[in-house]
Amino acid sequence: MYRNVSLHISGVLFAIGLSLASCNQDVKDPQDNDNERAAATIRFKNDTQFYVQVHQVSFSGQVVAELTPGESVLIEAQPSENHGVGSTYCVTYQYNVADESDVYSGKVFAEGLDPNAQLTFDIQAGAAYTKQIPIPDGIEFSKAFIRIRNASTPASASAAPQFELAYYGTSYKQAGNQEVSVPMGKTGVYELASGDFSNYRLQSVFNEIAMPSTQLQNGFVYDFVFTNEGNAASVIPDVKRPIKPRPVSQWEKTISSYRQITLQDATLEPYLKSIARYALSDWRSNYPLNKIISNGDTLVAGWWDFGALSNIVQATGVSEPYEVAAITAKDAEWNSTVFPTVNGYAGTASVAYHTTFNDIVPLSDGGYAVLATYAKGTRCGLWLFFLNANGQFVSEVDIPPAEDNLQSLLGIKLASVNGGFLVLGTEKVYAEADDEWFDTSSQFIRKYTENGTLQWERKYVESACDRNFAICGVETVGGYIVCGYAGDGYAIKTIVLTLNKADGSVTASRSFGTASDFMLPYSATADMAGNVFITGVSTEEGGDLSKAYILKLDAGGSEVWLKRYGNRRNNLLFDLTIFDNLLTATGSANDSAGDADDYYSWQFGKGWALKIDTETGIVLKNISREDVSAFNSIVKLADGGYALAALKSVNNAEPYWFNTFAVKTNEYLEF
How far from each other are the two terminal CA atoms of the chain, in whole angstroms? Predict the structure, then answer.
């Protein structure tokens, strides 16, 4: 038995006016039958996510079995005596609405019933029966629940703020533990009846604030977040959700298991000295390794892979780096499309070079545009190719490096825009044809139509910086916003450009960061009002600890807020999406002692997801998952849930050894 419960079912039935058929009939208790007849056995199996009580005869009848989720219970039962009509068992359901790790109130059960949750069958003497607990349909609850998370910060080292929920000056006890105060970092849960939730206040030692007025409905959970950020207390409504089981992810698929071969000392030195290796080396660590997108009902993931041993051996040659492109499609089956090799190179007959996958975006005709960077001699060019809805190759655009070997083009990201897409990357220029290191670099932005026609190309150089990279972009009503970074040594600034849609000319340029730190962007998105949200990683000025950042700009490009997240050493956010005034960002949080700008520090981390209020930047939900090392990409789905791409390190000594996953969550970002 998991707990003792007193259900006032008669009051519930009167309130909701249900007709409960046989479960309300005045049926003779089978236990009054002649006990000389052989008893039967019934095994009740509970494969639902509810806690369950099985009642004899009626919903208010004797409880003969209590089952936790997944449990089965065997009972004895007397044979039926009502002329073959059978005996009746009725089921009531309870669900723990407070099962998160930070809940302070303990277990809090919502109690309800489904009038159709009845099991009626004829019991024969000595027989054995197995009965599945029915999954409820149209379950009715008699209470609503308020959950308030204390996300406040200490006013001083010795003052950790607690709050109390008060109604006209009287403190309200939490359901579950019946305590009054909710400590910092914890969630208090309160059980209330439907009606007007107003005149409630949150009180702490330092401040008092009115709760938002809300019309409560029985059978729903209402989440709020209390914070005192910026010395001003506030309560932010989070979500309203029906009381129902929260499913585990609908599917989790391994996209790719990486086959890695350790470079031996004998091959490592010439490999690192390869001129071509230098040409490809210093851009790859600046953005996530894989991408997940939604194209109608299809989910597509792209990633880059390493080749077999022969490719690594070839990497010691000047003109033969070993990266190989790979694309996978689609849905939960993940049928792979890996491009054929031509003499050991990935690509097609016209672009037969070792190739690194960069990005993939959906097109309006159901197909896809894919960006890759390929090695040609000691330099790199761009390979833009198109797939149909079935992942089959359709056409390509080859943008080679300059013939004089003084230019190298590195692709980084694609950005979907109305009628086409942007290609973002960097152009490196070398002083001499055989130089290993570039002399100058510029951000480049190319606008293409969906059929691959180039409309315009622009380059941008942030002065006094030796590195200029365009790394992500988004379309707004005011133009295209392209985010990049410019660096001089270890000082890296986030660069935000506003481009004219017609010709790509720069209408505004802003930079964020100082000369003594770095701010490296990874992804950008925009809401319907034209606000832009940029995420990445940064150090605080003069420090060596990195935190993820999110920067909000208004439609005019002015800064609204800049927030940093995380309290560990290397906290990275790689991607973000916005829906219904909630921002969801994903990345990795870890305690690595490595450099903050080293992308591969994620291998020591945990998959990290934040749900953030777009108005204030306050975190409403903070999730970390030890079963993956990083969540690299996130996309909102038509069913309200999310799909995430994830990486799991399989060898911390080798940053290139990892498995790639796709995971689906529900609309509340619950796995």
Answer: 28
Count other Cβ atoms within 10 Å, centred on residue 60: 18
Distance CA 237, CA 654 (A): 44
**What is the 8-class DSSP label of residue 309?**
H
Question: Tens of pLDDT along 67-86?
Answer: 998 999 999 998 887 665 78
Which of 172-186, 212-226, 484-498, 590-604 shows the lowest mean pLDDT across its residues? 590-604
Beta carbons within 8 Å of 601's beta carbon, 6+ residues apart = 570, 572, 588, 590, 592, 594, 595
Residue 240: partners with Cβ closer than 8 Å, 6 or more residues away: 220, 221, 222, 223
CB atoms within 10 A of CB 358: 27
CB atoms within 10 A of CB 621: 20
**Beta bridge partner(s), residue 597:** none
- Whether 334 contacts 301, CB under 8 Å: yes
Q: Are 638 and 614 in contact (CB under 8 A)?
A: no
Evaluate if residue 650 carries a pLDDT over 70.
yes
Between 261 and 516, name the one with better pLDDT. 516
Largest CA distance in the chain: 103
Q: Which two tokens mark 499?
A: 């481009």
Cβ contact 204:159 at 8 Å = no
CB 540 within 8 A of CB 519: no
What is the rounded average pLDDT of the residues 117-123?
A: 90
**Cα–Cα distance, 596 to 536 (Å, whole number):** 11
Here the tokens at position 365 are 């005709």
Q: Tell me how far apart the alpha carbons of residues 357 and 284 are, in angstroms, rounded to a whole number.
A: 10
CB of 386 within 8 A of CB of 370? yes
**Contact in structure between 553 and 531 (CB atoms under 8 Å):** yes
Q: If 0-12 CB within 10 Å is exposed, 13-18 middle and 19+ buried, where does residue 654 land?
A: middle
Q: Where are the beta strands (DSSP E) in 182-297?
A: 187-192, 195-197, 200-203, 208-210, 214-216, 220-227, 234-242, 252-257, 290-295
Whether residue 100 contacts residue 182, with contact meaning beta carbons closer than 8 Å, is answered with no
Phi-psi region of 332 (alpha: psi -120 to 50; beta: other; left: phi over 0): alpha
Cα separation, 67 vs 665, in Å, equals 27
For tokens 């133009």, name the residue: 479
Q: What is the pLDDT of residues 531-560, one digit of tens each?
A: 999 998 887 655 566 788 999 999 888 999
Bridge partners for 75 per DSSP: 42
Question: Distance between CA atoms of 664 and 175, rounded to whole angstroms?
Answer: 32
Distance in angstroms (rounded) separating the CA atoms of residues 163 and 152: 9
Measure the CA–CA gap between 184 and 566, rounded to whole angstroms: 16
Distance CA 497, CA 551 (A): 14
From the number of C-beta atoms within 10 Å of its C-beta (0-12, 13-18, 19+), residue 639 rates as: exposed
Report the pLDDT value the prediction gives residue 545, as an integer from 0 to 100: 67
Burial 420-440 (b: 16+ CB within 10 A, else e): bbbbbbbbbebeeeebeebee
The pLDDT assigned to 499 comes to: 95
Place of tokens 């068992």: 89
Helix%, strand%, coil% for the chain, nearest 5: 5, 50, 40
pLDDT tens digits, 314-361: 222 333 334 444 444 444 444 444 444 433 334 454 554 556 778 889
Q: Which residue type, as a one-letter code, is found at position 173? A: K
